[in-house]
């Protein structure tokens, strides 16, 4: 319940942050696809902890193991099982969690729902679960790129009140990866890094906003009414840990405009393809992609685990205080970039298969 995502291209994740490992079952991958295992590992390397001085110091290589679904590197069309084993577990860092709920974590809500919770780390609520999403998304990315040349690029747009100037139409993954904060605006990136380091030294945390663009998305993806493409994208990215907001196209800024200012006028085309003069719709109209770049933004809260002393209560409701000991990111945004890309890619892959199934009879 609640650990699977997708309809035709479907992932199911398993594992806890301080258990034996985290894995994923990918169903619906087309057969006879030559899979680049190195590309899957590269995505996990972008997500893994301990990759820079502004991320958690937990040391995990996050080496992927392919358990099923391949003949060599060729997909069989059967479920693909992948596993990453945990190596640097420190459950002792979380002994106090057994007695006290960590503020703004899932401890209290998991206890209320199940009557039991993982005593080490966040369990299923931990960002370590996103290994499964990134691994599954890496397969979807390969299919989308080979079929349509689709690119999905995310970046850190804002850290607290420090905002970058980024052109979604031209931003590249190489530019994003050129800084440890994953902001392609070099000058702004340096300010972001300094702020994150400062906050980390103070034992605190900060949040911000990620931007994401999809280029080369074919028109026609998305279903009417309840399975609109932007609705599925919103669900996908908002299922990530620490997310608190979603915008697409003009987003909330569009609420300040009149219809005459916001409408995307159509341009004439000799080949019959659809193009618009502006893109306030963010590449989606009526819940269906129109072929223009899909542009979205995701808001992330400050990391909940901080070293500052905080008031809380025990499971029995007694007042106490808590200062976390675990290894955590002072800002989740740099490592969230591949996570957002993965969830967006999974949605697009699922809708591509649904569209192909709908049109294959004609």
UniProtKB/TrEMBL annotation:
The note on the cofactor says: Reduced FMN (FMNH(2)).
Quaternary state and interactors: Homotetramer.
Q: Which gene encodes it?
A: aroC
The protein's required cofactor(s) are namely:
FMNH2
The Swiss-Prot or TrEMBL record annotates one GO molecular function as: chorismate synthase activity
Name the Gene Ontology biological process terms. amino acid biosynthetic process; aromatic amino acid family biosynthetic process; chorismate biosynthetic process
The question of whether Flavoprotein is a record keyword is answered with: yes
User: Which HAMAP family does UniProt cross-reference here?
Assistant: Chorismate_synth
Top-level lineage group? Bacteria
So where does NADP(+) get bound?
47, 53
Q: What is this protein called?
A: Chorismate synthase
Q: Name one GO cellular component term.
A: cytosol
Family named by the database record: Belongs to the chorismate synthase family.
- Which sites bind FMN? 124-126, 286, 301-305, 327
Keyword check for Lipoprotein, yes or no.
Answer: no
Q: In which pathway does it act?
A: Metabolic intermediate biosynthesis; chorismate biosynthesis; chorismate from D-erythrose 4-phosphate and phosphoenolpyruvate: step 7/7
The UniProt catalytic activity note for this protein reads: 5-O-(1-carboxyvinyl)-3-phosphoshikimate = chorismate + phosphate
Q: Which InterPro entries match?
A: Chorismate_synth, Chorismate_synth_AroC_sf, Chorismate_synthase_CS
Naturally occurring in which organism (per UniProt): Aphanocapsa feldmannii 277cV
- State one Pfam family annotation: Chorismate_synt
What does this protein's UniProt record list under function? This reaction introduces a second double bond into the aromatic ring system.
What EC number(s) does the entry state? Answer: 4.2.3.5
Q: Which UniProt keywords apply?
A: Amino-acid biosynthesis, Aromatic amino acid biosynthesis, FAD, Flavoprotein, FMN, Lyase, NADP
